[in-house]
Amino acid sequence: MAAGDSVKHGNFTFTETSIEGVLVVDVTAYGDERGYFVETYKRPDFVAGGIGCEFVQDNQSSSVKGVLRGLHFQIEHPQSKLVRVVSGEVFDVAVDLRPDSPTYGKWEGAVLSVENRRQFFVPRGFAHGFLVLSDVAEFCYKCDDVYHPNDEGGLMWNDPEIGIEWPILEGMELVLSEKDKAHPGLKDLA
Question: Pick the catalytic residue: 9, 77, 128, 141?
Answer without folding.
Answer: 141
